[in-house]
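Lecture 7, part 2: worked example. A protein chain together with NDP.
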Amino acid sequence: MEDAWVNWALLGASTIASQYMIAAIRAAQQGTVGWVVSGNADRAQEFAKTHEISQWTTSIADALADEAVQAVYISSTNEKHFAQVMAAIAAGKHVLCEKPLAMTAAQSAEMIAAAKVAGVTLSVNHHLRCAGSHRKIRELIASGAVGRVLSLRLFHAVHLPEHLRDWRLNAPRAGGGAIADLTVHNADTARFLLQEDPCTVVAEMSQSGMGNGVEDSVMSVWTMPSGVMVFSHESFTHPFTESGIEVHGTDGSIVAIGVFAQDPLGEITLVNRTGRIEVLFDKTEIYEAVIREFTAATRGRGVPAATGADGAKALLIATAVREAALTGVCQTISYGVVE
Ligand code: NDP
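Predicted complex, written out as structure tokens:
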């Protein structure tokens, strides 16, 4: 059984499934895609044909009723995650859900509790935890390479590709906006790198050329319990910048360029009294690692890279950023509801 393949159903005929996750499931050599479910029959059929998926449907219940399906990957628009995750858990399937896990903390808590009761794995696709670059930065921090960490700066301003300029830019009810899309990634990255959870947040957001009813740019400052200060920048509107992470400590700095990516890209430099050192890191395909670790967890080996609680905490932080930006008031974050 240990080496049995996992048969997946995809909920959502999405770009991320098409560009990365189907290939990752197949390349991880432990997965096959049995179903795609879409709200639109023509799109479902076309998607199934393009990706050589044997079964398609517009009925989630049909795919979930298939006993051969063991795991479900959910990459619909954000407002659908909650109901789809709950349906998949109720059908006894393991679930890998896209970020953000849900729209509210209360929904996240319900999802986590339901997965626990059902005894299934619930994971959130915070894929950057599986990036060799992020793992190397975490390792450097933990080994004391920069001494005591003073500050973390997360640069996640991108130029949203043309083909994604849809619900992200004009549909608050679908979970559009830079906070739902990018701040959750930064929140998870800060937690992953520093191994602690932000306690307070101040923020500003704006519509700087792309957003239509949703923010397309955000800047926020978070304080960690240890006193580390975190600066986080996310945007859809920046054509010429590169993403990056800077960690500044008493004995050195880590400067990583191009590491908020879907592919194993980027460069890491450690700067200290001896000079500048280029740091090498593992270039394993990121989403393949997500699938491998998720699959191992479904077989009782370890936990997925990002658990339901990790997804819920990232959402709580992003929600606090929105609230701080809306009100101009510093937000204190309480994690009790998802712990
Ligand atoms: P898409 O816009 O490509 O797909 C989302 C949904 O939109 C699909 O499920 C589909 O609905 C519908 N849709 C897709 N194409 C069309 C079309 N041509 N016409 C009408 N409707 C269409 O979204 P993404 O793939 O960019 O994002 C999906 C989810 O994945 C989001 O939650 C996002 O946050 C997350 N994501 C995560 C990433 C990561 O690295 N972890 C990266 C990118 C996205 P239906 O279900 O009915 O088929």
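The chain has a mean pLDDT of 97. The first helix runs from residue 15 to 27. Keep this in mind for problem set question 3.
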